[in-house]
TrEMBL record:
Keywords from the named record: Signal
Protein name as catalogued: EfeO-type cupredoxin-like domain-containing protein
Cross-referenced SUPFAM superfamilies: Cupredoxins
Keyword Signal: yes
Leader sequence residues: 1-22
UniProt keyword annotation of Signal present: yes
Organism: Corynebacterium lujinxingii
């Protein structure tokens, strides 16, 4: 194998390994999930191109944890605030910490085209 080919394959292997490593860290570990009176945990379902519910109301300063279940037939995820569910295959569930909210925030499915098809999730902060 020519040196150029070897270098090219080494670059590809590095990129693949880096992508796999990044994908592995998007899910929250159990010890990363906060507990306490300032934490709200909500269950959100994904079906087709919708989050159900598609909004949550939280008091200012609240920490948000989402149990996200993909009941649809294709891969989805949720990115809002500091958190990201990671990509979920149909039937999978993820629990993730999305951060402390002091202002309204908009989240969405990060898969290409899904946000424009209406896959958004709103965090409304109340005083």
């Amino acid at each position: 194998m020519a040196r150029v080919d070897t270098v090219a394959w080494a670059v590809v292997a590095t990129l693949v390994a880096g992508t796999a490593s990044a994908a592995a860290v998007v899910h929250s570990r159990a010890d990363d999930i906060p507990t306490g009176d300032d934490v709200i945990t909500v269950d959100v379902d994904v079906d087709r191109m919708r989050f159900i519910p598609d909004r949550v109301e939280v008091p200012r300063g609240t920490k948000l944890v989402v149990n996200l279940t993909n009941s649809g037939e294709e891969e989805h995820d949720l990115k809002v605030g500091e958190g990201h569910s990671g990509r979920l295959d149909p039937g999978e569930t993820s629990t993730a910490y999305y951060g402390e909210f002091n202002v309204d925030a908009l989240g969405w499915c990060t898969i290409a085209g899904h946000k424009t098809m209406g896959m958004t999730f709103k965090v409304d902060v109340t005083p």
